[in-house]
Structure formats: structure tokens, C-alpha cells
Amino acid sequence: MKRCKKCNTIVDDQDKFCYVCGEQIPPYTRRRLILIATTLIIFSSIFGILLVKHPDTFSRIRFITATLFIPKRNTLTSVPVSISSNPNDAKVYLDGKYIGNTPLNNYNLSVGVHNIKITKNWYKDYSGKIKVEKSSPQKVMSVRLRQGLIRQELKGKIAFTSNRDMNSKIYVMNADGSNQQRLTHGSSKDFSPCFSPDGTKIAFVSWRNGWDEIYVMNADGSNQQRLTKGPYNGEPCFSPDGTKIAFVSDRDGDPEIYVMNADGSNQQRLTHSSSKDFSPCFSPDGTKIAFQSREEYYPNPDIYVMNADGSNRTRLTNNPAEDGEPTWGP
Length: 330
Known about the structure:
Blueprint: E1 2-3, E2 10-11, H1 28-53, H2 57-69, E3 78-86, E4 91-94, E5 97-101, E6 104-110, E7 112-119, E8 126-132, E9 139-144, E10 158-162, E11 169-173, E12 181-182, E13 190-195, E14 201-206, E15 213-218, E16 225-226, E17 233-238, E18 244-249, E19 256-261, E20 268-269, E21 276-282, E22 288-294, E23 302-307, E24 314-315
Parallel strand pairs: 3-9
Antiparallel strand pairs: 1-2, 3-6, 4-5, 4-7, 7-8, 10-11, 11-12, 13-14, 14-15, 15-16, 17-18, 18-19, 19-20, 21-22, 22-23, 23-24
């Protein structure tokens, strides 16, 4: 079937003239077929020549066709990743490159497997791998850091008190007296330092809140935190495993021996008497505490020992002289 260009009338293929308006109908269908055939021959010749001179032509054409007409399944090349640690403020290294401190939120990380290292002073380094996949909308990673062993540069250190800067402050030095460094600052008095067994913390007493209070800090003087709250708290002493601190407090009227966790929680009174108790010191195995006590009607103190829970209080010395400040041998 053909159509008249003048009156748009449909006529048969064999008609040469329109039966409505008499317009001549050109045999363009045959011409169109000839044009199409000629075009195909030309393009086939060109394509054959290209294949002879450039054998990868077909691969290129297929790639272009796929790019233009085949829908892409997943184009993700990176995924937001959140990395945290306990404690936070630890340095994060990915594939050997420092990317920041924890917590890191929505950090774009390329798809694949990456080496990760998390490090923080006084804690053991964490090393591992993190796998990022296209299908994951967000990757979350949390790491708990473990307390590290005593660092080599802290072995043999001595903490002490000095008023060389016009006020009592905490200092630290090497065992031979070299490299003396000031750790605490400010206008208040700081004194009675005590190293934790692993050498990473120092407990001390400060007047910065108006009373004698116990504080703890890292061995380099950073992260100073108050542990007690009351009219008088002093003479801190770490347990051998570093989890407890024995101390003296008169919060209940008389100076008594107390114990608390190393973070200041769970403070408990151990001695209950009319005497005044001072200078607690844990035994090497942590099962006992030696201390000095002055009975109400006797002005001179004597040495006592008790279990770490306050039970079985036993008097060790009994004479008119002053016996005090006990310390255990290794």
C-alpha cells in the first residue's frame, strides 16, 4: 500500500495514479529498498576493512553499546565507614596512612579489604583488617583497647613533690635524677603521688577544690580526673593489680581507711573504730592492708594489718614509741 502525497489517499502498490485527484504515484518503495541495500553494502565494506586493520574494533563497539544501552547494576566505589574505640581519641591508620582520631563518622572508604591499626598511649595497639563491600550501605567498626604493658621509658621513674616553682607540685624523674619534669600546674597544692603498678597512672592529692581530694592522671600528666568528694581524702595507694586504691578519709568524723575502684567508683569504708587510721599499704598479693593507727587515749601510733576487705584487724606493734607509715617488701 502507498499513500498519495497530494490528497493523502491510500492506493494499491500497482497503481501509478491516484484515483481521487489523478496525482502520479512514484514507485518510491522500490527506490527505498535499493537505498537500504546500498547503505548496508557500504557499511559492511567499511566494517570489513576496519576488522582487517584493527582486530579489536568489534570489542570497542560492544563496549560502547553496553555503556550506552545496558543499565548499570551498582556503581559504588566507596562506602561511608564509622570507626570507634573504647577509650576513644585513639589514632587510626588505614593501609599505613593516618586518617584521624576516634570516633570517625561517615569516613568514605573505597570498596575492598584494608589494613587498619588503632593506637593510643598506654594501651596495646589494635591491628586487623576491615572489609568494605558494595552492598553495605554503611560499615560500623568498634574496637575495645586493652591496657598495655608498662612502657620502656616509664621503667624506673620516680614521682615526687616539689615547691621549686613557689607551690607544691607533682614531678617525675629518672632513677638517676635526670630528666626532671613537672606534671601538674595551677595555683593549688598537689602532693602524695603514687604510681599504678603498670606505670601508666599516678594517683595524687590536690587542694584545687578547697579540700584534700584524690585525683588520678596519666603518667605524662594528661587526663587529670577527680576521684573523691568530701572534706578530707588522702594518702592513695594502688593495689598490686591496679584495680583498687586504698586511701584515708574523715568523711564519717574520724580518719578511717577506705578503698575504691581505680576509677573512683564503689568507695567503701574498711575500718570502724574510735582510733585514727592512716597510711594504708597493700601487701604484694593484694590480700592484706597494713596501716598505722592511734588509739583514742594513746598519743603514739602503732602498726596494724587487716584483710583487704577490712576484716581481721590485728595489732603488730605495741610500745610507747611512734610506729607508722608501713610498707611491704616485694
